[in-house]
């Protein structure tokens, strides 16, 4: 019988995974154990995921970023999906959710688990619909069968849409966009058809038993999250949240780790309120938010509209951010969309950590600023969140090696570079301004690894050896 991280923590045991994440986060192992024991943090680590490099999700630790990947009925094969996994890990995803709804789901999932150094999440309800043929044909037996199968395959956390209840459905009638969660719409259809309560709610205790047997972490789905600003913070959303709080405590009683999913589309002035309410209702369980998007007017740029809300949510205490790509609402993302989405969300997570005062988080910023003032272009590239992109943009106008030592870039040119002018003024013997001496030692920073370069910090030894992947340029990746 597997002992969950929560059960071990409650017994006072510091597991190997706890010790590992304590090192990654630069925190005391006993602090990690206590946070897990109290349900304030989770370590998604299925006993069958042998390639896993454990990580921790909780508001007292560096904000994490999840990347969604997955195929559909019209696109995506096992090789393509593995490449998406590569892209996500390379550009700094802390976890990856496989939301595939197409073919070869078992093969793709098993391949991900075999090779992924980051936790893998799934939504088993999607596979249930695919097997049943329609939402109406789903049975509790099928749900339990699929959940247990995925747990045995090594899935680290699963989104379970158990919080949407029959009595919540009338509360959505006045909404602008109705029920926008895939899982929520599936469960609502089932309840409307059968006139019964949510089957995932009915078998919740059995799901807890399966999760406890494999140490799978709950990601309690927000089936009634708002799909537009007009629906944010309405009665339906908050009614489901109250149920999620009850489900959190029921899972804890059975030794199962829990995080809770959140919105969605939320205006800026309501973002902190959402985080604070979830923390109160769910007794501090880690909050895992999608965005939130703070405006609805920018299709094609929703990695930006959502990263704004994500940064605010991280500062307010959200523990993990689910990235949004430029293709959100428009289509299935490709590798370059994954890259852009992860860049936006790594920025949001880091900015949130700086704003909330996580230990050493700003040291990275200070180190890059020092390199910028010193015109140390190579160090700027090395410290950049996306080194390849920074170097590429610089070299579009000044590609030669001699410009890597130049005291200007193409924006201001030689004569109008403010930092060069400032340095020259400080270097004059009769100047009234002191010379600036700077330098940040990132090696001694108390920052967690995800708040120090490079962003892809997970042990990736289990990833397939693929020179064409590790060496190729971004342009080449986009051509595949």
From TrEMBL:
It catalyses: 5-amino-1-(5-phospho-beta-D-ribosyl)imidazole + S-adenosyl-L-methionine = 4-amino-2-methyl-5-(phosphooxymethyl)pyrimidine + CO + 5'-deoxyadenosine + formate + L-methionine + 3 H(+). Keywords: 4Fe-4S, Iron, Iron-sulfur, Lyase, Metal-binding, S-adenosyl-L-methionine, Thiamine biosynthesis, Zinc. [4Fe-4S] cluster binds at residues 409, 412, 417. Binds 1 [4Fe-4S] cluster per subunit. The cluster is coordinated with 3 cysteines and an exchangeable S-adenosyl-L-methionine. Its EC number is 4.1.99.17. The keyword Lyase applies. Gene3D superfamilies: 6.10.250.620, Radical SAM ThiC family, central domain. Pfam families: ThiC_Rad_SAM. Its cofactor is [4Fe-4S] cluster. Residues 428-480 are annotated as: Disordered. Substrate binds at residues 68, 97, 126, 161, 181-183, 222-225, 261, 288. HAMAP family: ThiC. This is Phosphomethylpyrimidine synthase. It comes from Natronorubrum sulfidifaciens JCM 14089. The lineage of its organism: Archaea, Methanobacteriati, Methanobacteriota, Stenosarchaea group, Halobacteria.
């Amino acid at each position: 019988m597997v002992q969950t991280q929560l059960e071990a923590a409650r017994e006072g045991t510091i597991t190997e995974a706890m010790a590992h994440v304590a090192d990654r986060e630069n925190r005391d192992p006993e602090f990690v154990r206590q946070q897990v024991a109290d349900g304030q943090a989770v370590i998604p680590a299925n006993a069958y995921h042998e390639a896993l490099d454990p990580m921790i999700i909780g508001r007292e630790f560096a904000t994490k970023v999840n990347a969604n990947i997955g195929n559909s009925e019209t696109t995506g094969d096992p090789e393509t999906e593995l490449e998406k996994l590569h892209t996500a890990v390379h550009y700094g995803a802390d976890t990856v959710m496989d939301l595939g709804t197409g073919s070869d789901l078992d093969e793709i999932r098993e391949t991900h688990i075999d090779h992924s150094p980051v936790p893998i999440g799934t939504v088993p309800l999607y596979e249930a619909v695919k097997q049943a043929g329609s939402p109406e044909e789903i049975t509790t037996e099928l749900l339990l069968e699929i959940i247990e199968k995925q747990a045995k395959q090594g899935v680290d956390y699963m989104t379970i849409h158990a919080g949407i209840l029959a009595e919540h459905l009338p509360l959505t009638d006045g909404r602008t966009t109705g029920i926008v969660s895939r899982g929520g719409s599936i469960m609502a259809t089932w309840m409307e058809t059968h006139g019964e309560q949510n089957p995932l709610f009915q078998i919740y205790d059995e799901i807890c038993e399966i999760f406890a047997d494999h140490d799978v972490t709950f990601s309690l789905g927000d089936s009634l999250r708002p799909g537009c600003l007009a629906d944010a913070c309405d009665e339906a959303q908050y009614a489901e949240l109250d149920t999620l709080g009850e489900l959190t405590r029921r899972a804890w009683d059975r030794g199962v780790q829990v995080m809770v999913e959140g919105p969605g589309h939320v205006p800026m002035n309501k973002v902190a309120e959402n985080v604070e309410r979830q923390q109160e209702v769910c007794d501090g369980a880690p909050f895992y938010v999608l965005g939130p998007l703070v405006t609805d007017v920018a299709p094609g740029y929703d990695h930006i509209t959502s990263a704004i809300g994500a940064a605010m949510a991280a500062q307010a205490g959200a523990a993990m951010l689910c990235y949004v790509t430029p293709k959100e609402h428009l289509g299935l993302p490709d590798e370059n969309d994954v890259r852009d989405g992860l860049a936006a969300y790594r920025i949001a997570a880091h900015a949130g950590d700086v704003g909330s005062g996580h230990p050493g988080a700003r040291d990275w910023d200070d180190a890059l600023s020092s390199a910028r003032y010193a015109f140390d272009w190579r160090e700027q590239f090395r410290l950049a969140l996306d080194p390849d992109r920074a170097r590429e943009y610089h070299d579009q106008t000044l590609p030669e090696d001699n410009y890597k030592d130049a005291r200007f870039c193409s924006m201001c040119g030689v004569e109008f570079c403010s930092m060069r002018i400032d340095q020259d003024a400080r270097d004059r013997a009769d100047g009234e301004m002191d010379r600036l001496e700077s330098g940040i030692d990132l090696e001694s920073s108390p920052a967690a690894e995800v708040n120090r370069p490079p962003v892809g910090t997970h042990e990736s030894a289990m990833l397939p050896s693929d020179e064409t992947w590790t060496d190729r340029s971004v342009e080449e990746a986009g051509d595949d």
